[in-house]
Model the fold of this input.
Amino acid sequence: MTIVAQNHPSRELFSSKISRFLEEFQVSRILKACNAYKTRGFSVKDLFQVALENAFCNKSFYQQEKEALIPFSKDTFYRFLNSCHVNWRKFTLQLGAGILKTVEPLTGKDRRNVLIVDDSLFSRSRSKKVELLAKVYDHVTHKYTKGFRMLTLGWSDGNTFLPLEHCLLSSANRANRIQEASSKVDARSNGGKQRNLAQTKAPEVVQAFLEDAKNIGIPAQYVLFDTWFCSPSSLVQTKETGYDVIAMVKKADTIRFRYNGRMQSAPSIFRASKKRRGRSKYLLSVEAEAVKDGKATSVKLVFVRNRNNKKEYLILVSTDISLTEEEIIQTYGKRWDIEVFFKMCKSFLKLGKEIQSMSYDAMTAHVSIVFARYMMLSLEQRRNVDGRSFGGMYYDAYDELQDLRYLDALALLLKKLTDAVKERVVFLEKELDCMLDSFLKNLPSLWNMCLKQCA
Done:
């Protein structure tokens, strides 16, 4: 007999909340539409609910099975994860679209809703025989490691972030793949199609994500990219899909725009153009064209100043030239939501730590379950913060939650500039603090106060 009860009241309370979440958004119906069928024994809904709860009970499936906290064995759960018939990409997208029907009415019509594309390392550094395991570059350690690039498409209105689609990218280059896909999986099945997508180049996968989001009716006007996905071809293709792009441009001579009748790189345009004088919020703003295969798209290039280091600046590009420079900077600041999402999933929701399966299907299912956990928590957070979620009377009485402010976006850009300086030049921590203090002192008093509040 143990001193602590097995079924703690807090566990039961959380389990009831998950049950309400599954009922409200008809998760069992979505699972069935994605080919997640019960063959025998326990229902798919029960398996999925236990999977959602696992991140919050601080016990592995083995421990829960041993202590009789779950009604089935861990082998039953792993058979569910290893199924190659379930379309987990479709599940995540449909669940996110269902939650958006609850969140989107809380967002004003003048709000700039965005889709965010980014990737993060899904590490399997101690593995050897995992399906489609590849050598991928880790931008944190600046070294190659074994694992996958977890390419993610998410939606944000500046307050709530919802992950919509994902793909564990292996490598399109055979030389970089350590293991190949299993020959036992039918190429016509959902698992076979997902394995084929994992060996496709990232820009093509991004376009497939955007097409899926467009077809299901995700409410967004802009797509936000980092430098890794920003190129003239991606700008032209995304514009043709029906979305405008706001992205950060890499300072490379290979990425060129048509300006004043000739093709030039963004740094060349910056050097040849006259800068804004005084304490302007940005250094330069010009209109140019992104050209690919004879197709041209008008863009606006915004060069954001770094008052701390005159040799450093950031370049933002927007295919919506009607936006002001302040609106471009403010909107791009929402891209930070996906960085918070990656941190939350890896640190608290057991991404990559919960299972150690060698099956590509199991890893894809695991990522979808983690994404569902985040969507559930994100919705709960929005309902607790936004008073208008309590019904029609509150919807009319409460003001809309504030969008990401321009100063917040500028603070994020300044942080990114500081990180870039740290990577290129070796500074002591005290020197960087002195440079930042000097920078803040030269700003107007109102800006100084607001930026300190943001920090």
Q: What stands out?
A: The chain has three domains: 9-81, 88-397, 406-454. Residues 406-454 form one domain. The chain has 17 helices and eleven strands.
